[in-house]
Amino acid sequence: MIILAVESSCDETSVAIVKDGKQILSHIVLSQIDIHKIYGGVVPEIASRSHIEHMTKVFDQAIQKAAIKVEEIDLVAVTKGPGLIGSLLVGINAATAFAFAIGKPLIGVSHLIGHIYAASIEHELKFPAVALLVSGGHTELIYMKNHMEFQVLGTTLDDAVGEAYDKVARTLGLSYPGGPVVDRRAALGKDTYALPRVFLDKEAFNFSFSGLKSA
Question: Of all helices (H) and strands (E), which one includes residue 29?
């Protein structure tokens, strides 16, 4: 089975073509980092406009690089959420139109589930499993008894890791995205700061990063 997948939940326009869930025929990603860098974070309106401008180009590049005919595509998948509503709508509309044009089924995918199952391309998922999901706006600990069975063990009570990184970087006058920059700077430091740690309920597995971010 050949699947064409569309992702536009935030600031990257991406189209991938995958065969039998393992073989990546093409994967085109157009990043908007340079656009949002001057603002120190993603500006939703600018992100959605950039998706509109580049979406069809990314489609064309992915199909061309995969070296397949459009008729060989069996299914179209698209990120349905969570994410920036304007950015999501661009990808959903593009995928819907494409699927309709070639007469193939369309499915919506949670991009958080996509994060987890992306690992299965190189490593087989063995159940039961615990997944640590860390992305720009989400930090979750998830228990999986089997395929597509998800139980959230813990989540952030305030900021996600990625959000905390970006806000700290912006406050310190560092570049965007903040994660890699703050991480590199931290490894170079010689001083030790007594930053607070939030000890939550021992019976739960939730996270909290707001206090650490503020400090």
Answer: strand 23-31
Within a 13 Å sphere around the CA of 90, how many CA atoms are in the beta-carbon half?
28
In tens digits, the chain (215 residues) has pLDDT values of 999 999 999 999 999 999 998 899 999 999 998 888 888 788 999 999 999 999 999 999 999 999 999 999 999 999 999 999 999 999 999 999 999 999 999 999 999 999 999 999 889 999 999 999 988 788 999 999 999 999 999 998 898 888 888 889 989 899 888 889 998 988 888 877 788 776 666 778 888 888 888 88
Alpha helices in the chain (DSSP H): 33-36, 44-66, 85-102, 111-118, 161-171, 178-188, 210-214
- As a dihedral over the C-alpha atoms of residue 149, residue 150, residue 153, residue 158, rounded to 10 degrees, the angle is 180
What is the reported pTM? 0.86
Distance CA 2, CA 104 (A): 11
Backbone phi, then psi, for 127, in 5-degree steps?
Answer: -105, 150
Residues 6 or more apart whose Cβ sits within 8 Å of residue 193: none
Angle among Cα 60, 61, 66 to the nearest 5 degrees reads: 105
Unique residue bearing structure tokens 């661009």: 90
Q: Which two tokens stand for residue 56?
A: 């069809």
Residue with tokens 């991009």: 111
Q: Which amino acid is at 20?
A: D
61 C-beta neighbours (distance < 10 Å), count? 15
